[in-house]
Every structure is written in structure tokens, then in C-alpha cells.
Specification:
Layout: H1 7-19, H2 30-38, E1 43-46, H3 53-63, E2 67-71, H4 75-87, E3 92-95, H5 101-112, E4 118-121, H6 123-126, H7 129-136, E5 140-145, H8 160-163, H9 165-171, E6 176-181, H10 186-195, E7 203-205, E8 213-219, H11 223-231, E9 238-242, H12 246-258, E10 263-266, H13 272-283, E11 289-292, E12 305-310, H14 317-324, E13 334-340, H15 342-353, H16 357-375, H17 381-387, H18 401-404, E14 411-412, H19 414-426, H20 433-440, H21 446-450, H22 467-479, E15 483-485, E16 492-494, H23 496-503, E17 509-510, H24 516-519, H25 531-548, H26 552-555, H27 558-567, H28 572-576, H29 583-603, H30 622-629, E18 633-635, H31 644-653, H32 658-665, H33 669-681, H34 689-694, H35 699-712, H36 718-723, H37 730-743
Parallel strand pairs: 1-6, 1-7, 2-4, 2-5, 3-4, 5-6, 7-18, 8-13, 9-11, 9-12, 10-11, 12-13
Antiparallel strand pairs: 14-17, 15-16
Helix pairs in contact: 1-2, 1-3, 2-3, 15-16, 19-20, 20-22, 25-27, 25-29, 31-33, 33-37, 35-37
This protein binds adenosine-5'-diphosphate and zinc ion (ZN).
Adenosine-5'-diphosphate (ADP) binds near residues 27, 49, 51, 54 and 329.
Length: about 750
């Protein structure tokens, strides 16, 4: 097929978007990606979960004359995609080990008749002789590899059989190859392109900022009642609660069930049957909440997950991002709450000590990055998004607790600070926050009696604040440098600045936390839709889905029902105008839903509201088409050009030498070191091997510098320089400081 000058094809793609999928416009990068694929350029797509990867290969697959093969690692995801495509009237099938002989034969017959547009395959099925024979008799236009990170040993889910896909590529040389993943590390990206031997490096990296997710972190004081309060805001809505251990899952599941919630557990200790069943109940909206360990979520595509609670601390930022990423795939708002306690850090620390030395280093780095996210009082998206190497320059996202917190005037909190700090002092700087608060609030706990702390003069002098308010205050005292917290044991120690506060020479300004309930207030989605009608439509959807044996969202996503209950469409034309209503779905379900809406409107004297008519897709201008014609790396709608330190850090991480970087970027050694230091402090990893060689100092001087850093801490270079009496060159100190940071197990403790 000749696809040069593919402007008409991209216009055709726009038509398919509305007619087949029922969507008005492409999401960021989708159009550029589709255009690139239609030109038969190999394409690597990196998009976060929910970014809309599937559409990128499904639209071209519909346009191509020949077959599109989609390699996918999980049968449940394959099944889900096939169901959704079929509901949209697209001929899609899958071949995998779960089919009966009869089903298999029918499927193959359909493929042979060239009726099928998309064929989903598990990798092991792909390499079977009979599959290969089948493919050799067909025209294959496109080979799509979903979850392409499975190809790389650097990815989190390496599958050796994925590597053999290249053999298939050789067998169908005219097919364009598309690889899609949500994992974006440079090494994984490189592996994918190398192993699949991409003809050109056409990479599309979407922004990892999921704007519809509301991010919130709360100190965990009474997690169960905090969760109950949170759940009150989400009646009948789907969500996941992640816990650290199976035991915790079982307990929380039981407790929620006792409270009358519709809930099921999910963890690796349950039988396969039980897990599949619980997952299916959740996907089909028969169960509202899943309480799970990290094991849950890989194989599900449910778009209407409205909340995620992290009952315990996630393992690292990547895990956290992946887990919250499962919420709000439909683009509607979702709320992600993380309950955080220093006790959880100790649990993670314990697990870290069980690892090898090298692994410990990485794990500690991960933990530091996670803590930076938790403890920040700036926008939470800043530490989160920059962790993935993307620039983030929005001053206020309005979708995280810190950004929404009313910018109250800072008030004088010197007196509570004096109370707290003197209580830390009087208990011997050996205890953690919880105990100090207990003393201040006059608790009768065993621990207090054991240490005789009820006799202290600070006992009971802090009853005017709740436990939670004290907790919040104590975090501010740490952030303002009045005390430090031992990362391992959680004990608090005073800094010299604290003594200034005692003396009254230093005032403390800060905030007193508002009441808990206000925290869970969400801004509703802008649609004030009719709840009564929505309820009816939802019931009908469930009935239709059950009889077709598919999840409700396959019939219509929530957003479609919300639009129905807002615009009250009365005709075919206006129904087709709504989100997610394509021609095939209209044929199948249109009249059923129209009848319900009409009747409801009559009974309630409601009138249709006009929705902006979606005009037919405008043909693309030559200029637009030219602009799309030559992408190398294109970023999302909000261009995210990577900052220099990220580029330098990635180059070094990928194996470039320091000298090579100096030449490539035209920068001095000092500048390279500054960039690497910044990159490292944002939670990335850097290689330490070359750094030590870079230092020209004799071994004993190197050791002396490292020892001094150890004693003085990693905060600033100047005190280190001074402690070495100015005898060691600044650049040398910088090199060894970086080396220290990149290797030392306890690293970045100071910065956290
Ligand atoms: P990913 O595979 O990247 O996690 P999906 O392909 O499953 O994401 O898409 C996520 C959701 O977004 C799906 O419900 C899909 O129907 C929807 N979607 C994708 N593209 C668009 C679009 N252009 N307009 C509206 N919704 C879209
Ligand atoms: Zn924010």
C-alpha cells in the first residue's frame, strides 16, 4: 500500500475516532503517533497508564488493508481489548491457551477469511508452528507489541519469550512495528528499539502528569477511621485499597465487610480461583472495593476506578505511580490518598536490610525519593513528575493537597514549638513523634508509665491540640530545622536552632492543621448531572452487560452515562454526539437508552440540553501534515523539553564517560558534576564506578575526604572544604562528594 502524502489517511483516522469510538478529539500525541504509523515508520510509544495507548494502533489497524497482530502478555487484557473493540463494531479476535478447540477453529477460520482486523496473541501462541503457518498465508501490515518493556531485562517484568519476537519481524518484513509501554527508563527504551531493530528511532513520549488524579498524603493516625471517613465520599464507586502485607489485607477486608461495605480481598495467598473471581466481581461493578497487596491491578483495564487508598507506604515512587495510575483511566477525576507513618518506613528499612549491598543502595535511593514526595510542602506533582525525568514547571496544579491548602497567613507557633521541643529534651531525645505527643496530651499509655513520663513538667500541657494537629506541627518543626529525626528509629533530636527558640530569640511561624473532614472535600466534576436518571441508566447498563457477559464499561463508560444524565438527548443525532457513542454501539444499545431518557424526561418535565455540535473532522492542512511528517522525539501537548541535568544524567546512566559528556554537551567538568549531583538528588541513580577514578588524589587523601564528608554530612561543600583546611581542591571535593552520595547507604538522609 502506498501511503506517501498521508494527509487524507489522517483525516480518515479522525473520522474513525468519532464514528467507531465515539470520541471527539485525539488525546495528546495520539494523532502524531497514528500519522507516523500510517507512514509505516516503526514507532515506540511511551505513555502513562490511561494515556490512551490502545487507540494509537487500533485506528491504523482499521485503516490498514491487511492484518494487525497485537502481542500482549496477559490473557485478561487481551480479552478486555477484544470485547471493547467488538462492541465498537471492529473485528478483533484473540488466540491464546484459554480457548477450547472449537473456539480456536472458529477463530482461525475467521482470520483465514480475512474478516479480522486485529489479532491478539500471547507470545507463546505466536511462536507455535500452526500460528506461524497461519501468518505466512496472510498479509500482515502491522506488528504491535503491547507492554513492550517485557522485552528488556531492565524492565520490571522481563519475559524472555518477548525477545523472540524479532524472529517474527523477519518473517513479515513489510509490517510496520509498534511498541507500547508505560515504562520509560532510557535503558528500557533503548533495549526495545535495539531488540526489535527499529528502522528509525521514532519515539513518542507523553507527559506522565495525570491531571485528573487528586494527590493527597495524610499522617496516618487512625488509618481505619480515616479510611471510613474517606469512603463516605465515594458511595457506590469503585476503588482499591493497597496494603503492605497479606495479613493486613485480610484484616482490613474483614473490618470493612463488618461495616457493611461491598468489598473483596486480593493477594497472592488466595487461590487462583478466588483471585480471578474477586477481580471479575470488581471489574463488573458487583463489588465496590478491592483490598489488595501490590499483586493486584496488572491485568485490569477498568476505567472507572474513582479512588486509591495507600493504607501503607508503597515500596517506592514507581510502584506508587503505577498503583495510583490505575485510577481515573476514563479521564474523570479520581482521588489518591496515601496514609503515611514513620513506622512504615521502618518496615521498609527492615526489608532493605535483607537485600544485597548493591540492592540496598538502590532501595535506599528509592526510599529517599519517596520521602521527598511525602514530605514536600510544594506541589506534590513536582517531586513525582520530575522523578521520571520530566520537567514540571506548573506553579500550582490545583489537584493536590498542598496546592489546595488555603494559603493561610503563617501564624506564630512559637509557644507550641517550645512545648514540643522541651518535651523532646526532657524525654532525653530518645523518643519518636507519637510518644512525645502522648506525653504532651497527657496519655496514660503503658510506655509513658514505664518511663515515668507522667511526672514530667511537660506532661499534659498540649491538650489544646489534637494528636493529628501535633503531628502536623512536628513535621513543620523538622522542616524548619528545629529538630532532626533518626531515619532508622524515628527518634527526635534538637538542633542548635531549637535552643534559640527556647530562649525566645527565634520566633517560629507556621500553620495549624485544619480538621480532618475538610480534607476529603472534593471538587465535583463540572457536570451536575441528574442522579436519578444516572441510576436508572446504570442499572440498565449492568443488565445489558451481564447478559452479554462483559463488564459494564464495555457497554458504555461512566462518562457516557453522565453525559446522558446531563444533556438528556432525545434523538439518534444527539446521542451519537455524546462521548463514547459510535455507530456500532448506537445500533446495539441506542434505542434502549433513548427510551429510558425520554420517559424520565417526560415524568420529570425535563428538556434536552444542546451539546455543542461536533462538526465533521476538518481536513488537515498541508502545513499541519508537514509538521507531523518528521518526528524524532515529540513530546505531549505541553512540550516537556528535558532539562540539561536530566539529559546529562541519562547519558551518564547509559554508559557515556564523563569526558564524553564534556565534549558532547560542550561543558566543563564542574558543570557535569553539578548536573549529576542535581540528577542524583532528584532521586535518580548514577554510576559510581567512574567517579572514583576521576579523582586524582592519592588513596589516603581520598579516604580523608570521604571520612570528612561522613563526619560533617552531605548538606554543603563549604564546611567540608573548611574542615580540610582548604588544602583540597574544590573540584576534587565535588567528585568525592558525588561518589559518596551515589554509594553511601545512608545517603541523602540530610536532604530528606
Ligand atoms: P492505556 O493503554 O494507555 O492505559 P487505554 O488505551 O486503555 O490507555 O485508554 C484509556 C481510556 O481512555 C480508555 O477508556 C479509552 O477509551 C479512553 N480514550 C483513549 N483515547 C481517547 C480519546 N481520544 N478521547 C477520549 N477517550 C479516549
Ligand atoms: Zn499541586
Amino acid at each position: 500500500m502506498k501511503i506517501e502524502g498521508s494527509a487524507p489517511l489522517i483525516n480518515q483516522a479522525q473520522g474513525i475516532l468519532k464514528k467507531t469510538f465515539g470520541f471527539d478529539c485525539f488525546r495528546p500525541l495520539q494523532k502524531e503517533i497514528i500519522h507516523n504509523i500510517l507512514k509505516k515508520n516503526d514507532t515506540l510509544v511511551i505513555m502513562p497508564t490511561g494515556g490512551g495507548k490502545s487507540l494509537c494502533y487500533q485506528v491504523p489497524a482499521i485503516i490498514f488493508q491487511g492484518l494487525t497482530i497485537v502481542v500482549s502478555p496477559l490473557i485478561s487484557l487481551m480479552k478486555d481489548q477484544v470485547e471493547q473493540l467488538r462492541e465498537n463494531g471492529v473485528k478483533a479476535v484473540s488466540l491464546n491457551s484459554s480457548l477450547s478447540y472449537e473456539q480456536y477453529r472458529n477463530t482461525v477460520a475467521g482470520i483465514m477469511k480475512k474478516e479480522v482486523k486485529l489479532l491478539y496473541l500471547a507470545p507463546e501462541t505466536l511462536f507455535k508452528e500452526k500460528t506461524l503457518a497461519l501468518l505466512s498465508s496472510l498479509k500482515v501490515d502491522c506488528l504491535t507489541i503491547d507492554e513492550a518493556h517485557c522485552i528488556s531485562e531492565w524492565g520490571h517484568d522481563f519475559r524472555p519469550e518477548y525477545r523472540k519476537i524479532i524472529e517474527i519481524r523477519h518473517k513479515i518484513p513489510s509490517a510496520v512495528c509498534i511498541a507500547l509501554t508505560a515504562t520509560a527508563t532510557p535503558q528500557v527504551r533503548k533495549d526495545i528499539k535495539d531488540i526489535l531493530s527499529f528502522n528509525q528511532a521514532n519515539e513518542f513520549i507523553a507527559s506522565f502528569n495525570r491531571e485528573n488524579l487528586f494527590l493527597q498524603v495524610l499522617p496516618k493516625d487512625d488509618p481505619f477511621s480515616q479510611s471510613l471517613q474517606f469512603l463516605k465520599k465515594f458511595p457506590n464507586q469503585s476503588g482499591i485499597i493497597y496494603c503492605f502485607s497479606r495479613k493486613q489485607v485480610d484484616e482490613l477486608y474483614q473490618a470493612l465487610q463488618d461495616e457493611g461495605f461491598s468489598v473483596r480481598p486480593y493477594h497472592a495467598g488466595l487461590s487462583e480461583k478466588e483471585r480471578t473471581q474477586n477481580q471479575e466481581l470488581f471489574i463488573r461493578d458487583d463489588v465496590q472495593i478491592i483490598v489488595a497487596t501490590i499483586a493486584f491491578g496488572m491485568g485490569i483495564n477498568k476505567p472507572n476506578i474513582r479512588f486509591i487508598i495507600h493504607y501503607d507506604l508503597p515500596k517506592n515512587i514507581e510502584t506508587y505511580y503505577q498503583e495510583i495510575g490505575r485510577a481515573g483511566r476514563d479521564g474523570l477525576k479520581a482521588h489518591c490518598l496515601l496514609l503515611f507513618s514513620y513506622g512504615d518506613i521502618q518496615k521498609i528499612k527492615y526489608f532493605i536490610t535483607q537485600k544485597s549491598e548493591q540492592e540496598q543502595r538502590v532501595a535506599n535511593l528509592h526510599l529517599s525519593a519517596l520521602l521527598r514526595f511525602i514530605e514536600t510542602d510544594t506541589c506534590r506533582r513536582l517531586p513525582l513528575i520530575t522523578y521520571f525525568g520530566e520537567d514540571y514547571a506548573v506553579p500550582k496544579c490545583n489537584a493536590c493537597d498542598n496546592c489546595l491548602e488555603e494559603k493561610k497567613e503563617l501564624i506564630d507557633i512559637t509557644i507550641p514549638a517550645q512545648k514540643f521541643l522541651s518535651c523532646v529534651k526532657r524525654t532525653g531525645e530518645r523518643f519518636g513523634t507519637n510518644h512525645i505527643i502522648d506525653v504532651l496530651r497527657g496519655s496514660q499509655s503503658q510506655k509513658i508509665l514505664k518511663f515515668n513520663h507522667q511526672k514530667l513538667s511537660t506532661y499534659g500541657i498540649g491538650k489544646d491540640f489534637s494528636k493529628k494537629q501535633w503531628f502536623h506541627l512536628s513535621r513543620q518543626f523538622i522542616q524548619r530545622g528545629l529538630m532532626t529525626q533518626d531515619m532508622e528509629f524515628g527518634s527526635l533530636k534538637l538542633t542548635p536552632k531549637a535552643y534559640e527558640v527556647f530562649k525566645g530569640t527565634e520566633k517560629v511561624l507556621g500553620k495549624i492543621e485544619q480538621k480532618q473532614e475538610e480534607y476529603f472535600q472534593r471538587k465535583e466534576d463540572s457536570f451536575e448531572y441528574d442522579q436519578g436518571l444516572f441510576h436508572l441508566l446504570r442499572g440498565k447498563r449492568k443488565e445489558l452487560a451481564d447478559s452479554a457477559n462483559v463488564p459494564p464499561y464495555v457497554v458504555f463508560p461512566d462518562k457516557t452515562l453522565i453525559e446522558m444524565a446531563f444533556f438528556f438527548p432525545q434523538s439518534k443525532g444527539s446521542l451519537l454526539n455524546l462521548y463514547g457513542v459510535g455507530l456500532a454501539k448506537f445500533e446495539k444499545y441506542g434505542n434502549i437508552f433513548l427510551n429510558i431518557i425520554k420517559q424520565y424526561c417526560q415524568e420529570h418535565h425535563l428538556q434536552e440540553k444542546p451539546r455543542r455540535m461536533i462538526s465533521r473532522p476538518r481536513p488537515m492542512t498541508q502545513e499541519q501534515s508537514n509538521r507531523l511528517a518528521n518526528p524524532s522525539i515529540i513530546n505531549s501537548s505541553k512540550p516537556v523539553s528535558k532539562r540539561k541535568h536530566v539529559l546529562v544524567g541519562e547519558a551518564y546512566y547509559e554508559g557515556a564517560s564523563i569526558e564524553g559528556i564534556m565534549t558532547k554537551f560542550g561543558i566543563k567538568l564542574d558543570t557535569v558534576l553539578n548536573h549529576l549531583s542535581k540528577y542524583l538528588q532528584e532521586g535518580h541513580q548514577i554510576r559510581s564506578d567512574e567517579l572514583l577514578k576521576l579523582s586524582t588524589l592519592p588513596a589516603e587523601q581520598k579516604n580523608l575526604v570521604l571520612k570528612t564528608i561522613d563526619q560533617i554530612g552531605t548538606g554543603f561543600l563549604k564546611p567540608i572544604f573548611e574542615a580540610l583546611k582548604g588544602e583540597i581542591d574544590y573540584t576534587e571535593i565535588k567528585i568525592l562528594h558525588l561518589y559518596y552520595l551515589s554509594t553511601h547507604r545512608e545517603m541523602m538522609k540530610d536532604e530528606v
